[in-house]
Each structure stands twice: as structure tokens, then as C-alpha cells.
Amino acid sequence: MSDDRPLIVVANRLPVSRGPAGWQASAGGLVTALRPVMSEVGGAWIGWDDDADEVPRRVDGLGCDLHAVKLTPTQVQGYYHGFSNRTLWPLFHDLIEQPVIDRGWWTSYQEANRAFAEAVAAVIKQVPGQPVLWVQDYHLLLLPQMLRELAPDAPIGFFLHIPFPPPELVARLPWRDHLMSGLLGADSVGFHTSRFRDNFVRSVQRVFNGVTALGDVLVLPSGRQVRAVAHPISIDVDEFSALATSEGTERELAALREQFAGRKVFLGVDRLDYTKGIRHRLQSIELLLERNADLRREVAFVQVAVPSRDDVKEYRELRTEVETEVGRINGRFTEPGHDVPVHYLYRAISREKLAAYYRLADVMCVTPLKDGMNLVAKEFVTVQAAADEAGVLLLSEFCGTSVEFGDDAVRCNPFDVEGLSYLMESTLTLDEDDRRARIRRLAEVVREADVYRWVSDELDAIRRGAERP
Ligand code: GDG
Asked: Does 244 share its domain with 229?
């Protein structure tokens, strides 16, 4: 359906932010994934922004119109900080933190989804023909059904960027029926992996009687059909390959190579989120250095921790814990006259610097406790292969990426802190030719299924789902 129909993407956020130089396209998993596509097919992007009245209609490099949804402070608190980030996020990530059930938040979540639906209705009137509506992520689980009521014949797709949990966890939500009905308003509901898709299908069948699953298709008691599909998200491979050897990246890399000369570099790049396994990773690093006094001068750990949701209590606590652990490791193992073992950057860095770190890394630690996909892993292998580097990817078995990557990544269980520390140690002795060959094969996997493939698979599923008999 990248035919001539306009595409309306609906996501919690608009893909822009306001910096000192004005409005610009912003960074982040979802934005990274959709930007190339929106530039190609055009259309509109609807999302919430604090400064809704000031958001410009167009921003360079996005290729689509922007429409901002206005929410009241109470709605933002309940819908976003509350229900999305403190109820759904922990519940959908296997209870790493305890989800909070709050009726006021649920009211705000419904109101906010309704505000998004009204915004979509207004935009539909402005675009020619029947647009394709593509809803993104856990903030908007109710929206597909609301849109179905507004535009009964519109092709509607939904994609979930985070894991979908097993039915036993969904059952904890007092509003599970509403949420499942919300999703079933779509023609196609997409997930990163078939395990998440199967969890969804089983949850629907547990919540509603009389739903049959025939392959990818769910047949509802009304006879309506909904596709449930698994489409792993990916990256723009050409963009990251070019970035790998760009002038800016080479410049940054030269400085980093000088700074870390003579040391092996372990790298972590994550939003500062409790799902990403940063605490466990640091504990493994502590054990590694405790066991190996010789490594204290020979290895460096760089952790880029991008600030995230710092108005949520659990995230502020996580930051304190991470910073305490970094301080403890450096306090215990820094030797006078030598550099600290752990370099902790609590900020986002430029794309060139990010690519330079990807190239510098001897071992990339992608060790989430649970992650829908994890684009950092895909970016790392792509950048490394493009520059003919020979780093190692240490990859959690609990992220979507590990389903595609198989044994060319060093697979780990991040809950096993001691085991992880031994695996870290073992990566230091891997043969260079073997490492380079693995990186190449992993990069090939990413190239075979890049972000363009993801988008075309998704849009195709929406089109097929919308072909009503
Ligand atoms: C959610 C799901 C799923 C990171 N630090 C910097 C920076 N980044 C960019 C990375 C990457 C993106 O942010 C992070 O994407 P992830 O996929 O790793 O993680 P989430 O943000 O949790 O994304 C996840 C994703 O949605 C897509 O569906 O994979 O499972 O949780 O692109 O490069 N970019 C820059 N500076 C940084 O410091 N410029």
C-alpha cells in the first residue's frame, strides 16, 4: 500500500523537538524507523506536543505534515506518565517493576485516546481520498476501534513497539476487555516477533469467546477478520553504513582511539530504563574487575545513558542506583595515575559520536532484561561491518533482536550476573577472523530485513487485512 494513498501515522509523539536552532527532526527508535518512509510516501503525522499551538506544519527532512494533539496537564499526567509508563510499560515488560493500577489514569488514557481520534478525524477531512491510518504503540491501544467507528472503511493498522505479554499478565488489567477491543478495531495488528503475536492471539481468545485463529487471521464472532502479524522492525542500513565512515565519524573516532589507546572497550548505549539491564550489567562488570586485577587498567566500560522519563519515580530511583554503582566501581578499581574503568555519560550524543563509539567498541553489551526489538544491536553490527571492524555483540536472549541473530551474537542471560561477567571475560579471547566473520553475517541479516522491508510488510498486511469480502 505504498500506492498513491496518503499515509497518516498516529503516534504518541511528533517526530520533532525544539532546540536552540528551532524545530528539528528528533532522534529515537520509532522516529528513526519511520522517517525514511514518510519522506518517501508523504502524508501526515499526528502526535501530542506540549507546545501544540506552536508546532509548525512542516519541518525539513520529514516529508510529512505535522498535526499536534493538545492534552490538558491532568490528561498528560494520567495518560502518559501514569497509565502508559507506570501501568502498561512495566506490565508489558514482564513486571521488571510493579505496574500501578489507578482508575484516574485509566480515565485520562481513554480521554487522551479520544483526543487523538478527533485529531485524526480532522486530518482525514483535509487529505484527498481514503488515507491509510497507521497507529503506533502502547500509548494508543484504544485508538484503532475509535477510528473504526469514525471511518468504517478506512484501512487501519496498529504496530506495537514493545513486547506483548502472556495472557496471565494481561489478565491483571481490570480494563483488558476494552484494551483488546481497542486493538481489534484494526485490520492488522503487528508485533516484532511471533512470540509476541502468539501472546496477543491467546490473550484475545482468553478475553473473548468464539474467536478463531486461522494462520495469521483472527475471525471475530461478528465475522470480521483481523490480521495478527510478526514484523521485526529494523534500521536504514544504507544510512548507518554511510555514517560509519563519514568524515565526522572518523574525526570522533580518532579522538576516541587516542583516549582509549591500549585498552579494550566495552560499550553500552541505552535509554536510562530499568528494562535495559544497566544495573545488572554494571554488577557483572564489578565482578569481572574484582576477579581480574590485571583488567582494571586494560579495559574500559563506556555507558551512554540517555535521560528518559525522569519525572517518573522508578526512573529517578534507577538513575541514583546506576550512578551509585558507577561510583562504587570506580572508587574500588581506579588506580592512582590511571583512568577510571567506567565512563558514564548521562546524555544523548551526536550520531557521529554514536557511530564512532560503535566502531571503537571491542564488545557491545546489549543486555536488556526485556526489549521489544533493540535497534542499538542492529546499528552496531551495521556500522562495524561497513568499516570492516571485528567487535563482538553480547546480546540478551530477552530482546526481539536475538530471535533474528542466532549464534553469531554471544547470547547471554542478563539476570545471571555472574554468568554474564564470565561471558564478558570470554569475549576477550575470541579469534579476530571469527569475530569479523560473525559481524559480517549479522550485518547481512540486518540488510536482508531493513526498515524499508518492515514498512512494506506492515503496509501490505494492512492492505490485505482491509480487503473485505
Ligand atoms: C522502543 C522499544 C524497539 C540511543 N542513544 C543515542 C541515540 N540512540 C538511538 C539509537 C536507537 C534508538 O535511540 C534506541 O532504540 P532501541 O530500539 O534500542 O530502544 P527504545 O528507545 O527503547 O525503543 C525497542 C524500538 O522502540 C523500535 O520499535 O526496538 O524494543 O523499547 O536508534 O541509535 N541516538 C543519538 N544519540 C544517542 O545518545 N543520536
From this structure: no
